[in-house]
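In this supplementary section we document a worked example of the pipeline. Step one takes a protein sequence of length 274 as its only input; no multiple sequence alignment statistics are reported here. Step two produces a three-dimensional model, which step three serialises into C-alpha cells for compact storage. The input and output of this example are shown verbatim.
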Amino acid sequence: MKKLFTTCCALLLAAPTFAQRDEFGTWLEIEAEKKLTKRIDLTLGLGMRANDNLGEVSRANAVISGSYKVCDYLKIATTYQYISDLSRGEVKEDFKKSNGKFNGYNVDEAFHRAKHRLSFDLSSKVKIGRFTISLRERYQYTHSVSKDIERVRYRDEVPQGFSGDVPTYEFGGYDWMECEIGEDHKNHKNNHLLRSRIGIEYDIKNCPLTPFATYEIKTQLQKGGATEETRLIVGTDWKLNKKNTLSLAYIFNDGHYSDEANIHAVSIGYKFKF
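The serialised model returned by step three reads:
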C-alpha cells in the first residue's frame, strides 16, 4: 500500500511537466445498472465534461452498455456512445498557390461535432487480501460525422501608408481589405484505439469508502501502434447503501504524445443499481 501511494504521488508531481499547456475541468457522470441475470448486466448513462469551472461544455454523451460475466475472473462487454464533442476554433495561414506568398488567414469558429463510438472490452480482476487488481483491454472505434462550419477569410493586406476611405479589418496584427464569411466542410473521420488499463482498489474494513487508482494507455492503431494519450485516475467510491454509490476522483490526462493539452479534472459520478 505504501509503495502504491508513493508511486501515485510521484506520477501526480511529475504530470504537469509532460506537456506545454494545461486545462482544468469538471467531469460529471450518472449511471443506472440493471442485473438481468446472474451473468448479464445492462447499464445506461449520461455524462458531461466542462472546462474553465463549468464555463464551457466540451462534451456531452449518452451511453448504453452490456456485459457478460464469463467466470469469476473474466468479463466481456460492449458499449455504444453518442457524443457531442467540442472542436476548438482554428487559425490557419493561407499562401498563394502561384508564388507561395502569404495571402491572409482562414479562421474556423469552434463547433460541436457528433460522434458515434463503439467499444469492446475484455476485463479481469483478482483479489489479494483486501486489494483487488484489475486489467482491462478495450478496442474502441469512433466515427466523427462530417459537418459544414463557418469560416472567416481575411485577404489583401492593407498597403503601408494607405489612406483610402474604405473599410478595413484588423486580425493577426495586420489590417486587411477583405473579410469574407463563408463555410468550410469538415469531412468525416474514423479512429481506432486500443485502451489498456490497470487498476487497484482497497477494501477498508467496516468503511463505506473504497479508494482506487487506475492508469491507462491509449494506443493509436492507425499510426503503427503510437501512444496517443495516457490517463491517471485517483479517487474513491462511497457506497451510500446497497443500491447507491457516489464516486469522487482526480483525473490527469497527459496529451503530450498527441500534442494536446494536459487535462486536470475533478470527476463526480453517481451509480444506481436496480
